[in-house]
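@channel anyone free to eyeball this complex?
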Amino acid sequence: MTVEELIESKKFSVINKASNTNKEISKPYTCDLLSIAMGKMPERAAWVTVMGNINTLAVSALADASCIILAEGCALDEVAKMKAKEQDITVLSYDGPIFEGALIIYNMLVANE
Amino acid sequence: MNDQIVLHYEIPSDDFTRAGEASSNVKKKLKKMGFDPEIVRRVAITMYEGEINMIIHANGGYIDVIITLDKIEIIFNDSGPGIENIELAMSAGFSTAPDNIRSLGFGAGMGLPNMKNYSDEINVESKIGKGTKVYAKILVTKRID
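replying in thread with the prediction:
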């Protein structure tokens, strides 16, 4: 499943859409502590977190996440929003809990297999 | 590619809006040079953790990256307070990060452990009140041309 397909499912709202949404999603990943996410997040993950600051974007870019989903309706602050545009990172938002957000992605991946 | 490429980065103190810029820059350069994505990822993670450590703990510093065909060396230098117990600092979960840093999502105590896990060799030298020097080496096992 690609990031574009995830967006098209309309299960998540779009905060920032990157120019390349053809990136494949390997699996959902959840963690709010950045160094743990940095060390453990699988490549091309859809990272579901409540941590919506500029450092989340840096970790996502460096650890090769495919997209970020901010759960619990969390938003990016203004600086981070600009950075997401600048760094061309897809950031989505989900009103429900982290687990539910990740489960939706997991189920979509399984259905796509 | 020439025999050796040396990159130098000054890391500002306490500036989280620019944290990760140096690491992103190295990542982009390595990608362009055709290094294997897994090697690039390991360098990016190692460098970012060192960069963040400098910003959180050491009032900034500088990083030199030496790129050759068979290895990438990253040398972190700071004039911060130094690390009291290196062995403890290298263990997963140990952190001295203050609360304001933890609220940003840092302080999991995984900085140096991540650097150790993602590099092939790491050496930490530190003097209390003088600063810390970290040397990390990542061997290039695969290359895409």
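from a first look: The first helix of chain A runs from residue 3 to 8.
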